[in-house]
Amino acid sequence: MVTVELDIFSGRPNPRWALTEREARQLTERIRADPGLLLPLGADTGGLGYRGFIVRAEDTGMADDWKRLGLPPVVRLGGAFQPEAAESSRFLLHSAESARLDLRDPGPVLAEAESVILQSLDVQGVMTLCSPAALTSDTDFSFWNGAANLAYNNCYNFASNLRTNTFAQPGRASGSMYTSIDCAAVGGGAVRDGWLTTCRADANYNVCLVIWPNYDYHWYRYCANSHWCHKPGQTAARNYDNSNQLILNPETCNRGGYTVFCGYYRGYNVTVS
Question: Does 181 lie in the same domain as 104?
């Protein structure tokens, strides 16, 4: 028997179900074709919300099959940062539709997971922080927060460390601005402005992009003392999140409705407007 656990809750136990024999065989074939789909149980696959699946081979026959493939009996598959596993993640998610889950209304839970899986297909950025990094102060924001500039520069200005007083938009400087609010469109606009999705050996800015699905985007920039800072719209630049906590990890900090993490970008010869 193969059991699947949708890793999505924080306080209550996650939903679990058993695959049918046919589904278990199909999963094994997917794994045999691409063992890289699987991650160790302790892998970081996201913060609050959808974090992929925990898959267990719980009987002798299936466990032996997995052992022959060189796999442990408990593995992870999918998560917010594994777009290459999106199709297999959707396969596992859809297997829950015919299972009996310990949820009063599983529909919204499964829909939330599928939304993140689909968003992961749009991930554009680097999935790691580049070094060395160009660093500005994590406490002195006077360059941004003066009355003459505060209302005219946004998160994208701050991320780029370029004060244009134009409420800069990804892609506008290049003549090709984003046309929808998702990782691919907004990230693509930033790339056209000069941001890179690969690391370089020189010291440049590290930033990351997050999305409030279909409504808005937001950028953070890595600053001194391992803190991330940001400027929400027309408000003051700062080094703390929605819970008033210093931002050490933008992937897991309190971002409010900006639930989709798109990845990291590396600055080089960036122009914004």
Answer: no
Count the domains in the chain: 2
Neighbours of 235 (CB within 10 A): 13
The secondary structure of 132-153, three-state, reads: CECCCCCCCCHHHHCCCCHHHC
**Parent domain of 208:** 142-265
148 and 259 housed in the same domain:
yes
Do residues 69 and 182 share a domain? no
The Cα 273–Cα 271 span in angstroms is 7
Locate all alpha helices (DSSP H) within the chain, ordered by sequence: 21-33, 60-68, 86-95, 106-120, 142-145, 155-160, 183-192
CB-CB contact of 38 with 71 (8 Å): yes
* Shared-domain flag, residues 94 and 147: no
Please write the tens of the pLDDT for every residue from 61-79.
Answer: 666 777 777 778 899 998 8
Closest CA relative to residue 160, chosen from 210, 201, 225, 208? 208
Residues 76, 79, 81, CA angle at the centre, nearest 5°? 120
Q: What is the pLDDT of residues 113-171, one digit of tens each?
A: 988 887 666 555 555 678 888 999 999 999 999 999 999 999 999 999 999 999 999 99
Cβ atoms of 139 and 127 within 8 Å: the answer is: no
Flag whether 97 is in a domain. yes
202 φψ region: left (φ > 0), alpha (ψ -120 to 50), beta (else): beta
> What kind and span of H or E run contains 44?
none
Angle separating helix axes 86-95 and 21-33, nearest 10 degrees: 170
- Residues 240, 154, single domain; the answer is yes
pTM: 0.59
Do 79 and 177 share a domain, yes or no? Answer: no
